[in-house]
Structure formats: C-alpha cells, structure tokens
Design goal:
Layout: H1 5-9, E1 14-21, H2 38-42, E2 45-54, H3 55-62, E3 71-76, E4 83-87, H4 88-93, E5 96-101, E6 104-105, E7 115-117, E8 130-136, E9 151-152, E10 158-159, E11 168-173, E12 184-193, E13 199-205, E14 213-214, E15 216-217, E16 227-235, E17 240-248, H5 257-264, E18 277-280, E19 286-289
The structure holds ligand MTE and molybdenum atom.
Molybdenum atom binds at residues 22-24, 123-124.
Length: 292
C-alpha cells in the first residue's frame, strides 16, 4: 500500500520519549582511552519525544501474513538507501513510524517527512527519510547490516544482528577535560539508559570501583529513555577515580571494561557499554582513564 504523509497523520498516533544511541557510541574506547571529553566518548546519544503511528497499527491496516512474517525491512530515501532488517516481535512491540519530534514536524536532518523509531535498538535501525517497509520470513542481509554495526567476536566470528543497546551510564560532571577548582562539595551527575526498559539503580564510586554508593534518580523514570542521576561528594584534594554503574529493570548490571572484554574480546568497536572512569588528579584536572 502507498501512504502519503496526510494519510499517515490521519491514523491514530502516540507520543513517547526515547533515547537514540548510535551503535558506534563509545567505540573509540574499546582498546584504550583515546578521546578526552564525554562529548567524544558518549556524545552519539540523544533523547526526544517522537510522535507517529505505531507500526503494528500500520501493518494491521495493510494486512500481512501473520503466520509467515518474521522480519520487516525498512528503507530510507537517502542516496545510500539505508536498509535494515528488524525482527517482527520488535516491530510489533513499540516501533513507531514517526512524523513528529519534540512537538514539531521532524527536521530534515532527523528524517523529514518520516523516520522509524525503534526504541532500545541502535541508531542505525532508526531509518530516516523512510520510504518503504517490507515484511518477510528471513533477514535481508543488506549491505548496511553485513559490514557495519557488527561485532568481531574472540573466536573470529562476526556477530551480525546485535541490536539492543544494553544498559549503560556515564558521569557528565565532573568529566574529562573539566577542572575542579578547589576541594570540597561536588554534586556528581550523569545519565543512565537501557534498551531493555527502565533504569532501576545507579551506583557511583569515587575510588576506582572499591566502594559504591547509590545515586538519586531524577524522575519521571521512563521506559528506554535517558534518566539523570546525581549524588553529593566531598573531594578531599587527593587523586580519585569516578565511575557510575547502572542496573536496569531486568536486573542487568552495566559491566566493567575488563569484564566486557572477557566476553567480547578486544577486536570489537561497536556496542561498548562499559563503565566509564574519570580520574581526578591532585591538581583537579579530570582525565579519561580505564580502570575496573
Ligand atoms: N536513511 C538513513 N537513516 C539513518 C542513517 C542514514 O545514514 N540514512 N543513519 C542512522 C544512524 S547510524 C544513526 S546513529 C541515526 C542518527 O539519528 P539522528 O541523525 O537523528 O541523530 O540515524 C540512522 N538513520
Ligand atoms: Mo550511527
């Protein structure tokens, strides 16, 4: 079936707030700390309100074979015709065909007139300038899912359809490149998110992971959305290592970088959700380091 934007806007729509994280966010950090600030380590991340038609409503409207259908294909109208396969369970769960963002029409750079919103899934599946959706019984294995956003595993195999952005967090203040001007009280704050649901807890350490205290979560805590946390801390003027560790509602605990490397090896770049460490030097300088 062919829909115009006007047709789509007449269907029942919903508005929901979700994070969007590129699968390459924090990829530079897989080997060693390589960039100085949180903008570079964790900046491929946003959180907006999207408005559109649930894909399940649209598919029902079109009619499709419920027995045979296992995947959908979404295609963009850009020069590269970005095309991604998405499992039908996910497509029918909470995916939107969105035309609105933060109360206005999508902006051209974010996919006007239409984009797929795939809550919890890596950014590349959020196809912008959406022009076609197909339903099928197997993954399409398109160019955009054969080379990029795959993980080279320790046994040499390629993990191709990593898609959910696992639970992750980062301290945004104090963070790399900042300078503490004097010892005393600081309010440590940062963001936590999970592609599998709501954030349940964030613990913060100031001594490189030996001791942890639970941070305050700022509400409302929403499903698959950025959640801000904060905790007071007295800096006594000696070297410290700040870290945050998030837990989501499934009980999944954000891993340390060494723990992640044990499972994923050291040749990946995408899908790095490891705990971030910021070292505070005695001079108050804040540096990107790896610890724990
Ligand atoms: N059609 C199309 N959609 C696309 C892309 C693209 O190159 N073409 N890039 C994807 C990637 S890799 C990401 S991370 C997100 C970024 O979304 P944003 O530009 O709204 O932040 O869009 C996704 N959608
Ligand atoms: Mo991306």
């Amino acid at each position: 079936m062919i829909f115009t934007l006007d047709d789509l806007m007449r269907l029942p729509s919903v508005s929901r707030i979700h994070f969007l994280e590129c699968g390459a966010n924090t990829a530079m950090e897989w080997g060693q700390p390589s960039v100085p600030t949180v903008q570079y380590t964790h900046g491929m991340l946003s959180c907006c309100e999207f408005t559109g038609v649930p894909l399940s409503v649209l598919l029902d409207y079109c009619g499709y074979d419920k027995q045979q259908s296992r995947f959908i294909l979404a295609e963009g109208a850009d020069g590269a015709s970005l095309t991604r396969t998405i499992p039908i369970e996910h497509a029918l769960d909470d995916v939107l065909v969105a035309w609105g963002m933060n109360g206005e029409m999508l902006r051209p750079e974010n996919g006007y007139p239409l984009r797929l919103v795939v809550p919890g899934m890596q950014g590349v599946s959020w196809v912008k300038w959406l022009r076609r959706i197909k339903v099928g019984d197997q993954p399409w294995g398109t160019k955009d899912e054969s080379i990029q956003y795959i993980d080279l595993m320790p046994d040499g195999s390629h993990r191709q359809y990593t898609s959910i952005q696992e639970c992750k967090s980062v301290i945004t203040s104090p963070s790399g490149g900042q300078q503490l001007l004097s010892k005393g009280m600081f309010n440590i704050t940062g963001l936590a998110w999970s592609g599998r649901g709501k954030i349940k807890k964030v613990d913060v350490s100031a001594d490189g992971g030996r001791n942890w205290r639970s941070a305050k979560l700022e509400g409302p805590i929403q499903n698959k959305a950025l959640t801000r946390f904060n905790i007071d801390w007295i800096w006594d003027g000696v070297e410290a290592i700040l870290q945050s560790r998030a837990v989501d509602e499934t009980g999944y605990v954000q891993p340390g970088i060494e723990q992640l490397r044990k499972v994923r090896g050291s040749r990946s770049s995408y899908h790095n959700n490891a705990i971030q460490s910021w070292q505070i030097n005695a001079s108050g300088e804040v540096l990107n380091v790896q610890a724990y």
